[in-house]
Amino acid sequence: MQMEWPPIPPTTTGPRGRCPRCGQGHIFNGFLKIRPECEVCGLDYGFADPADGPAFFVICFACVPSVLLGVWLEVQYSAPLWVHLLVTGPFMLATCIPPLRPLKGWLIASQYFYKAEEGKLARTSPAPKKV
Ligand SMILES: [Zn+2]
């Protein structure tokens, strides 16, 4: 029996870690480990390959507040190294680790929604024969 699944926008399923097809099952088996398949609809997550995408977005955007904090502490107070280890370091972890899972879920759901996959060569007709 083939069931029809209405398209669900990836912004509503991925950040919550829900299956991009049914919206009920879970994508993750742990913090960032992807399940082999959805436990509700059976969608095979073999297609899911966000690679370094979540880390890229965290590096580009989520690190900005911690860098600003570190620069501000240094410029304003000439903070010693131990202050940066106790303040800037934990702040950086607190701003960089939590967004990883929603970003990874969003990228996986977007991969499914937009049918993104590795590029392939498409041949429309066989090569012409030489006479
Ligand atoms: Zn599912």
Report on the structure:
Helix content is 45%, strand content 0%. The chain has four helices and no strands. It is mostly helical and 131 residues long. It has one domain (10-113). The structure holds zinc ion. Pfam families: DUF983 (PF06170).
Helical content band:
40-55%
Percentage of residues in strands:
under 5%
SSE string: HHHH
Give the terminus-to-terminus CA distance: 50 Å
Taking the sheet with the most strands, its summary is: none
Low-confidence stretches: none
Helix segment tally: 4
Would you report the number of β strands?
0
Radius of gyration: 22 Å
Can you list the ligands bound to this structure? zinc ion
SS-based structural class? mainly alpha
Q: Provide the residue-averaged pLDDT.
A: 89
What is the total domain count? Answer: 1
Shape: elongated
Outline:
The chain has helices at residues 10-13, 53-77, 81-96, 100-113. By secondary structure, it is mainly alpha-helical.
Task: Pick out its properties.
single chain; 131 residues; mainly alpha; 4 helices; 45% helix; 0% strand; elongated; binds zinc ion
Task: Indicate the topology.
Blueprint: H1 10-13, H2 53-77, H3 81-96, H4 100-113
Helix pairs in contact: 2-3, 2-4
Bound molecules: zinc ion.
Zinc ion binds at residues 19, 21-22, 24-25, 38, 40-41, 43.
